[in-house]
Design brief:
Blueprint: E1 4-11, H1 15-26, E2 29-34, E3 49-55, E4 61-66, E5 79-85, H2 88-99, E6 103-110, E7 116-121, E8 127-132
Parallel strand pairs: 1-4, 5-8
Antiparallel strand pairs: 1-5, 2-3, 3-4, 6-7, 7-8
């Protein structure tokens, strides 16, 4: 899989509705994963979206999620730029450069869903997410 760069939007509890709306606008395939599916069953956020991805037929990709518990949702600054793919060396290289002098919110390391993931806000105030998945065979 080639690396991709796309916007990642944060929502205050209405990610499902927003991503379904964007699917109506752009078409394509929408995949949604809830916090409940990730082990948060029986919690207030169980049905909220932990990760959603819309892949439109024209090549557009839009990702989004509800703001996780403990993090503040701030409309107007509710986006990140997402870098993702399976080229470990390439994506780690981007991470090293982006995170230099940055505020690192989540260190680049293996996460509960199995991928290597990190979040930082670069020295210019732009929030980044880097996700490295296992190479697909």
């Amino acid at each position: 899989m080639a690396s991709r760069l796309n916007p990642y939007l944060s929502f205050g509890g209405d990610a499902r509705q927003a991503l379904e709306f964007y699917k109506e606008v752009f078409g394509g395939d929408l995949a949604l994963n809830t916090f409940g599916e990730a082990g948060h069953q029986g919690t207030p956020e169980a049905d909220q979206i932990m990760h959603g991805m819309l892949e439109a037929p024209n090549g557009f990709t839009l990702m989004g999620a509800d703001t996780p518990p403990g993090m503040q949702h701030t409309p107007g600054s509710n986006f990140s730029v997402s870098l993702s793919g399976d080229d470990d060396a390439e994506l780690r290289g981007y991470w090293e450069k982006l995170s230099a002098g940055a505020s690192v919110a989540v260190p680049l390391e293996k996460q509960m869903w199995g991928d290597v993931f990190g979040m930082c806000t670069d020295r210019f105030g732009v929030p980044w997410m880097v996700n490295i998945s296992e190479p697909q065979s």
